[in-house]
Amino acid sequence: MSSKTKIVVLRMKEIIYTAIFLGLGILLVLLLFIMFRPKKDTPAASDQVLYIPGIYTSSLVLGSQEVNLEVTVDQDRITSISTVPLSDSVATMYPLVEPSLASLSAQILKSQSLESLTYPEESHYTSQVLIQAIKNAVAKAKPETRSH
Question: What residues contact residue 12 under an 8 Å CB cut-off, 6+ apart?
Answer without folding.
Answer: none
